[in-house]
Design a protein that fits this description.
- The protein is of the alpha+beta class.
- It has one domain.
- It contains 2 helices and 5 strands, in the order ααβββββ.
- A 5-stranded mixed β-sheet has the order 1-2-3-5-4.
- A hairpin with a 2-residue loop joins β4 and β5.
- The model has no long low-confidence stretch (mean pLDDT 85).
Length: 201
């Protein structure tokens, strides 16, 4: 009697549910490990952009205020700081508002943050405050300011200090990068502009 051979059918083992979920779980773990680093990089890029834009705007405000101060006709030049309202403080405040300087509010630069120095003095190495306006006039001994002709030179130097806002949490704890006080967390930046005074007509 013939014997029928039974065909052998090979079946691949069926993956368990646990084995099927392993790649997905591994991907989630890897993503969870990379996400903080990715967020830190993106946050750092945004924060750098804020600092760069604020610094650029501050430089432009300083140049505009210095250019205006170089054309003023107060005699002597330093009497501009005693005018009502004080100059170039008021002009710098107005320009900062018009340019929408990031983190700046009207009146942040005021009489309490306005510093003038004796004629021909040098600006100190660091600003007296993190928010303010400094000005000094320089000219030759015995020469008038403003000058009466182009043969003599007189200069006005303005330094603006401002607090750039901090958007990346924790950056204020990094050395020399940020500061926190009751007013909030910020990065202190400054710019200096020096212009030659124009001769009076």
């Amino acid at each position: 009697m013939p014997v029928r051979s039974k065909g052998v059918h090979k079946h691949s083992p069926r993956p368990s549910r646990r084995a099927a979920r392993t790649p997905r779980g591994q991907a989630l773990v890897e993503f969870a490990l990379i996400l903080p680093i990715l967020l830190l990089l993106v946050g750092g890029i945004i924060q750098y952009g804020v600092i760069f834009a604020t610094k650029h705007s501050l430089i432009q405000v300083g140049r505009d205020a210095g250019r205006w101060a170089a054309t003023q006709e107060f005699n002597p030049c330093s009497s501009a700081a005693l005018a009502a309202p004080a100059q170039p403080l008021t002009e710098a405040d107005a320009i900062a508002q018009q340019s929408r300087l990031m983190g700046y509010s009207a009146g942040d630069w005021n009489a309490g943050t306005f510093t003038t120095y004796a004629d021909n003095a040098a600006l100190p190495a660091t600003p007296p405050s993190t928010e303010g306006v400094e000005v000094v006039w320089s000219y030759g001994n015995g020469q008038p300011c403003p000058t009466i002709n182009s043969t003599t030179a007189a200069y006005v130097t303005i330094r603006l200090s401002h607090r750039a806002p901090v958007l990346l949490p924790g950056i204020q704890f990094l050395p020399a990068l940020g500061t926190c006080d009751p007013s909030g967390c910020y990065l202190a930046i400054s710019t200096t502009a020096r212009f030659r005074m124009e001769a009076r007509p």
